[in-house]
Amino acid sequence: MLQIFGLNKSFRIDGRSLPILDIPAWQVEKGEKVAITGPSGSGKSTLLHLISGIAVPDKGEIHLEGQPLHTMTEAQRDRLRSLHIGYVLQDFHLIPSLTASQNIEIAMGASMPAKRRKTLISEWLERVGLADRAKHMPSQLSRGQQQRVAIVRALVNNPPLLLADEPTGSLDWETADEISRLLLDLSSSGQQTLIVVTHDLNMAERFPKCLDIRELNRVRKHTEHQAGRGGAQEVSNG
Ligand code: ADP
Ligand code: MG
């Protein structure tokens, strides 16, 4: 489903180039559910931006469903993303002036007949326990309910890949746990590949596969050297 080779990404900050990601190789099989953990600033969001084609790497290859994302134009990447990827974010990003149902509908292709769209939305809201909330505005929903709407919006076109960036980051513990289970359940029944990045270890533990981004990424933050063994080894080797 996803293959990454020699991926490098730096950002220019104050005229200096700051390396963020250096991932020699990584792949995710179709249907896998992977949680990637790591501290704030370790490049988790940047990795998802690259996988989704929102950002481009400085070097390296990203193959999504056999297609070379790294060679595509922005327009081609946008198209690939709209067809293949659903994205769930920490802060839901629902449109405040639209109802739950309308927030889902805007993600759906205009080619689908309106009646079919309505039926599909009702079915989805039912599945996530929001059947009676279709006409509610986001402000009338709890944070957990808003995230459910955002998850439906990401899944309604049945994309093969679901990406989630800190999807439980602004939720209380209990709601976070519900949302984690919902993501796993829905992506299993839809056979989606699911990649979640989170610093929530409770969430990560629910996943069949869980890895720290630092296992993939060769860029090490100086704080790790100060705190960990890296610094001591450098001294004794020097
Ligand atoms: P995480 O999601 O793990 O918290 P990010 O991927 O958001 O980490 O960021 C990794 C590092 O890259 C951080 O130091 C952040 O400040 C920096 N960074 C992210 N995006 C940009 C950008 N557009 N310009 C400059 N620096 C950025
Ligand atoms: Mg982030």
From TrEMBL:
UniProt keyword annotation of rRNA processing present: no
Pfam families in the record: ABC_tran
InterPro entries: AAA+_ATPase, ABC_transporter-like_ATP-bd, ABC_transpr_LolD-like, MacB-like_ATP-bd, P-loop_NTPase
Recorded GO CC terms: plasma membrane
Start and end residues of each ABC transporter domain: 2-235
Descriptive protein name: ABC transporter ATP-binding protein
Keywords of this entry: ATP-binding, Nucleotide-binding, Transport
Originating species: Paenibacillus sophorae
PANTHER family for the chain: IMPORT ATP-BINDING PROTEIN, TRANSPORTER, PUTATIVE-RELATED
Gene Ontology MF terms: ATP binding; ATP hydrolysis activity; transmembrane transporter activity
